Amino acid sequence: xxxxxxxxxxxxxxxxxxxxxxxxxxxxxxxxxxxxxxxxxxxxxxxxxxxxxxxxxxxxxxxxxxxxxxxxxxxxxxxxxxxxxxxxxxxxxxxxxxxxxxxxxxxxxxxxxxxxxxxxxxxxxxxxxxxxxxxxxxxxxxxxxxxxxxxxxxxxxxxxxxxxxxxxxxxxxxxxxxxxxxxxxxxxxxxxxxxxxxxxxxxxxxxxxxxxxxxxxxxxxxxxxxxxxxxxxxxxxxxxxxxxxxxxxxxxxxxxxxxxxxxxxxxxxxxxxxxxxxxxxxxxxxxxxxxxxxxxxxxxxxxxxxxxxxxxxxxxxxxxxxxxxxxxxxxxxxxxxxxxxxxxxxxxxxxxxxxxxxxxxxxxxxxxxxxxxxxxxxxxxxxxxxxxxxxxxxxxxxxxxxxxxxxxxxxxxxxxxxxxxxxxxxxxxxxxxxxxxxxxxxxxxxxxxxxxxxxxxxxxxxxxxxxxxxxxxxxxxxxxxxxxxxxxxxxxxxxxxxxxxxxxxxxxx
Amino acid sequence: xxxxxxxxxxxxxxxxxxxxxxxxxxxxxxxxxxxxxxxxxxxxxxxxxxxxxxxxxxxxxxxxxxxxxxxxxxxxxxxxxxxxxxxxxxxxxxxxxxxxxxxxxxxxxxxxxxxxxxxxxxxxxxxxxxxxxxxxxxxxxxxxxxxxxxxxxxxxxxxxxxxxxxxxxxxxxxxxxxxxxxxxxxxxxxxxxxxxxxxxxxxxxxxxxxxxxxxxxxxxxxxxxxxxxxxxxxxxxxxxxxxxxxxxxxxxxxxxxxxxxxxxxxxxxxxxxxxxxxxxxxxxxxxxxxxxxxxxxxxxxxxxxxxxxxxxxxxxxxxxxxxxxxxxxxxxxxxxxxxxxxxxxxxxxxxxxxxxxxxxxxxxxxxxxxxxxxxxxxxxxxxxxxxxxxxxxxxxxxxxxxxxxxxxxxxxxxxxxxxxxxxxxxxxxxxxxxxxxxxxxxxxxxxxxxxxxxxxxxxxxxxxxxxxxxxxxxxxxxxxxxxxxxxxxxxxxxxxxxxxxxxxxxxxx
Lengths: 509, 509
Hints:
Two copies of one chain form a homodimer.
Chain A: E1 5-6, H1 9-15, H2 25-45, E2 52-60, E3 64-71, H3 81-86, E4 90-91, H4 106-118, E5 122-127, E6 133-142, E7 147-157, E8 164-172, H5 175-192, E9 197-202, E10 205-209, H6 232-241, H7 248-255, H8 261-271, H9 284-296, H10 313-324, E11 328-333, E12 337-339, E13 342-352, E14 363-368, E15 371-373, H11 381-388, E16 402-410, H12 427-479, H13 483-500
Parallel strand pairs in A: 2-9, 14-16
Antiparallel strand pairs in A: 2-3, 3-8, 5-6, 5-8, 6-7, 9-10, 11-13, 12-13, 13-16, 14-15
């Protein structure tokens, strides 16, 4: 006979930590830093505050790495602190709204990893806004029961009215292997968050990004599910929670995104349901049919993008300019779209020349909900799109200095794994990414055409100018006109010819 | 202020089902079948029974797919039935022993998926060995509380003394897209389990694999953890559970694989620990040091492979022969090895010619703990190895009919995700796979050399034989000897010449 037992979520992820990105000592350092930095950014910008993030890495004896991240975000209340750091699958981000974190796993995985490699608890210091006290705690995880163990809790007066969170972890990890990735990660984070101050210090690590803008992207709102994205389980749960006397029409308008009474009745008619039927009287078979019909109905409004927080063309271009220092950059924020009821927005930037390194292929910078994605590029949807584009159409000849930046914002980014490194090739997403890249690339082509013409004109100017003196002398000799006058006329004539060719001197924005 | 809440494991995987392979309607069909078939095989062979697996797929209205898998395995007790099918992260496979399932997720994910796409519970019918009753139940999952809901339970007399399990699920899925993958999956499963009867029936699906062997691979034993694979968390837990008066020496010998008193004392001396110290008196810092030293100590014995169940060279070659029908096949079972304290064995087969389709690259068949891996080939360690091999060294010229089969057995296969599709490139594993492929390939080269010589000899024989009649006539005319006698002498002479060249006629095993 088999012996059965229940695993707690902590134990599951403790046993299978590689699934969440903690697969080796180098990756663990990178992943820990990433989780802490992303929480720090979310703690500020999701609440309308300009992020201030400070990362410190110190090496200790026996390959131990001390990682500290400080932010000046909204802070965390002492009541939530133990669970937020010591309980897997406990979080505040299980709502329909774009944020970096979604799995309720990240920081707890880092805490678990610290615990199993050095046995040391996480140290947290935090104060919420306008609070009179600062709380500092050391928290470990009871793996078998998935409960926090508070090892120490201290309170002090918050004289300076500071708010924010400081998290400190000691893990066993490979800093020398991780350093390059961490540096790249911080750079890319700065690229996608030009409104943040981000400072990173550690052995052979010194990065200081001061914000180039004080404009925050719009704060995302918490939304309702879209009727297209419904499933039987969600529907059953919502019906269970519905008012006893709710009709189907009322149920639909109350619970779903963008459904008014007219749309609700139109849908019911199309689907063969009585709009006045009490929703609680639906059988499981009817609920199933309802779900199928809701997924199939063409008459719903598109999901509202108010739950999303795209960066915007201006900020994206600014971020790219700041970090890559290209000669040319252009950005596109595509109109909102959706897949399976999940709203999304794709943003793309294309940059060229300047500080971008020469390469045989376009350099791809991928972002999802403002998270830089560094691993598993080969299986990402953006890579798929970049690879199938014939760049010669856009006048790019390789080796070249071309960078493509893609940013997917969604309440549900279709990540391929809990490690959040690659985005799956959902068709709707793929075509938006392609449209964005092509739009930017057409602008790049215009720029490159202008540059080409400019180069030609310069060449012609140089060639022709060589003869100006001689021609002016000859003309002066023949006509008796002043040589200098003739010379300046000739130069004017050349300039006019060049501008006739419509060659501008301005650079791309 | 943020609103926090706890997700149950069910809810987590319900929200993130793509992580477990349920990413689209086609993949969901494939994944469901896979989970059920793998459980069916485990239910027999892990307990020394020859597997009998029968898959039935039926299409119903509205894109619903009814999937039924029957086995004649050990069955499941009615007491465990609700939890085994209706509770995520509940299972019997959380022990140190090779088995197909490990995550305690598979079948529950399928049940969840059925529930959210059709609202229908799983139907289970089972009887354990020598039981007087058969139990049939319908089970749903209370997602928010991660608890089973038993919708119906019936009992009947087990007149025929049947034992086994029948599982039936109705999911919404795309059969026409999934069919090809399912067929390939079943074929590969038959390849790696030549001792199983596997029958699969469905729309445009008819596969019947009768076992070609009644020899089961060795049943794996449940093992202890290896000292090298220890972490602070595990150590802390084991110490907590240890006898109050246990010394460090006793603790090490009792709890770890292959540690006797001599090794334990040798380790303690090397690590600077007192072997007679009470283990419960260790501080957390000492436990941390102990863990680090245990991971680093070179003097441990290798992990015991008794927890593993490799197929063996003979069975593997048989399975490959049965399914691919090649001209040549050879298999290698490498000696046990380990990474980070986890024992593993790599098995490799190389097959050539016959029924193998012509291709520009070697066809790779990947298996892990007898699970065929069909997706994400590009990021698998076996692919990495196959790609870097220069096949011309082994006399293979592409396009060719070459198949490479790799099988990794381990108590902990380093999968890249919960979907169990790709194996990570752990160095120890990589070098074993390479050694296995090279060993097989050298045998393939000998075979191909023999074939080459054989072809040359045949050509020579044909050319020379053309002149035998004429030469015999002429010799007979000159010498007066009997023409027929001369002819047979000449033919004998040719044969002798050929065998002088050492050309055998036998095929590879």
